[in-house]
């Protein structure tokens, strides 16, 4: 039995079934046994790959979009450039390389990375050698200043609770899905039917048998980012897989680029859930863009021209790789439609290029 399975069984034995959110938190961020805390899970040899790991074009275009937004807001002489959940630091490294040519941008920025994993912090340190970087564990610790912010596949790692709509003679409400111990293994079970205050608005668009997910940390984080942007100026670009008002069970475990049972090998697989962009849009006190497919955003910023420019110096396998990366990032059958982006900006301003209000 793995140490993580032993720990979870003991916890369930001591305090009862875990919510899916508690299970995700334990698996991903347990201080000594957690998935993110103990490893670098990215890349071909790891469990999953992400847009910045697929191609430098992603970070370059994101960096230029944010830098243009900084120019559009009068190029404040000091600002925080922050990323949450920076993984290997690849996105930020590509953003910084691309924005070197923007006069004054690097001189005005203070780099902040929000990262929970010590292993990934070390990777970020290597990727950003030569830059002055401050690390925090939470967004709330960022200095109060104009904020240009980016996150890619950060919100999908935040824990969700799952509720199944059900009714009987007395109640019309929700059964929470929980993780229980069964003969020394983990299983799912449903609790009793109760009303759930956070789901009152979902009573009208769901029926018995529907499952909905609630990511408790998502709204407060979006609120925190948007509050700073509205108060001090700035913008945010938040990328993730998901949709507007998501419905259905989207809890997914990935190991070696293959979907696995989320309860098998706890702490050994990446666990994620789709992001509900309606929650992010509803929580921010700033203005926000429409939710836009990643492929559309990248095309508007000229990813095809950038790919053509890079292709000029390439041939053979390297050229094939570049063409494949362009397709993976933008094509509707790959990441182009499943992945979305939303932008925040102060009221009265336009969102970063690539997005519309
Ligand atoms: N953005 C990167 C990595 C995505 S993986 C990329 O696109 O390649 C998710 C990242 O979020 C990892 O860096 C992980 O350690 C971090 N993370 C997950 N939950 C977190 C939390 N609650 N607080 C801070 N960082 C977290």
DSSP summary, beta strand count: 17
Corresponding CATH architecture of the largest domain? 3-Layer(aba) Sandwich
| Cα-atom radius of gyration | 21 Å
The dominant shape is globular
> How large a portion of the residues is in β-strands, by DSSP E?
15-25%
Task: Enumerate the spans where pLDDT stays under 50 for 5 or more consecutive residues.
Answer: none
- The assigned structural class equals alpha/beta
Number of helices: 14
Tell me roughly what share of residues is in helical segments. 25-40%
Could you say which small molecules are bound to this protein?
S-adenosyl-L-homocysteine
Total tally of structural domains: 2
CATH class of the largest domain: Alpha Beta
User: What is the rounded distance between the termini?
Assistant: 52 Å
CATH superfamily of the largest domain: Vaccinia Virus protein VP39
Please state the average pLDDT score.
96
How can the largest sheet be summarized? 9 strands, mixed
Write down the CATH topology of the largest domain: Rossmann fold
Explain the overall architecture.
Strands 2, 3, 4, 5, 10, 14, 15, 16 and 17 form a nine-stranded mixed beta sheet that branches. Strands 1, 6, 7, 8 and 9 form a five-stranded antiparallel beta sheet that branches. A three-stranded antiparallel beta sheet has the order 12-11-13. The protein has about 350 residues and is α/β, with parallel strands linked by helices. A hairpin with a 2-residue loop joins β11 (about 250-255) and β12. The protein starts with a helix and ends in a 12-residue tail after the last strand. It folds into two domains: about 5-35 and about 160-215, no CATH class; about 40-160 and about 215-250 and about 270-345, Rossmann fold. It contains 14 helices and 17 strands. The protein is globular. α5 (about 55-70) packs across α6. S-adenosyl-L-homocysteine (SAH) binds near residues 36, 86, 91, 114 and 120. S-adenosyl-L-homocysteine binds near residues 36, 53, 114, 120 and 154.
């Amino acid at each position: 039995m793995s140490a993580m399975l032993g720990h979870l069984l003991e916890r369930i034995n001591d305090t009862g079934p875990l919510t899916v959110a508690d299970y995700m938190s334990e698996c991903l961020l347990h201080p000594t046994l957690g998935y993110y805390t103990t490893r670098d899970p990215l890349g071909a040899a790891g469990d999953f790959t992400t847009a910045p790991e697929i191609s430098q074009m992603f970070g370059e275009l994101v960096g230029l979009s944010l830098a243009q937004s900084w120019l559009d807001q009068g190029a404040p002489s000091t600002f925080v450039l922050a990323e949450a959940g920076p993984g290997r630091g690849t996105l930020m490294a590509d953003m910084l390389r691309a924005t070197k040519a923007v006069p004054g941008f690097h001189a005005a920025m203070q780099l902040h990375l929000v990262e929970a994993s010590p292993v990934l912090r070390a990777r970020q340190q290597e990727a950003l050698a030569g830059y002055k970087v401050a690390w925090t564990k939470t967004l709330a610790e960022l200095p109060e200043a104009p904020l240009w912010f980016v996150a890619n596949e950060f919100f999908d790692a935040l824990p969700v609770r799952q509720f199944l709509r059900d009714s009987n003679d007395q109640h019309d409400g929700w059964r929470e899905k929980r993780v229980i111990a069964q003969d020394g293994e983990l299983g799912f079970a449903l609790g009793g039917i109760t009303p759930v205050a956070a789901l009152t608005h979902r009573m009208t668009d769901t029926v018995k048998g529907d499952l909905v997910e609630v990511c408790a940390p998502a709204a407060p984080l979006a609120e925190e980012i948007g509050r700073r942007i509205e108060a001090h100026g700035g913008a945010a670009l938040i990328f993730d897989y998901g949709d507007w008002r998501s419905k259905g069970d989207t809890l997914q475990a990935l190991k070696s680029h293959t979907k696995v049972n989320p309860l098998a090998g706890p702490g050994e697989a990446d666990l994620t859930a789709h992001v509900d962009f309606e929650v992010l849009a509803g929580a921010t006190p700033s203005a926000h863009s429409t939710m836009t497919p990643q492929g559309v955003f990248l095309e508007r910023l000229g990813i095809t021209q950038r790919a053509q420019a890079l292709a000029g110096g390439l041939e053979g396998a390297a050229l094939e790789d570049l063409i494949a990366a362009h397709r993976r990032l933008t094509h509707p059958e790959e990441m182009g439609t499943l992945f979305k982006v939303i932008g925040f900006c102060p009221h009265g301003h336009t969102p970063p290029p690539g997005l519309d209000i």
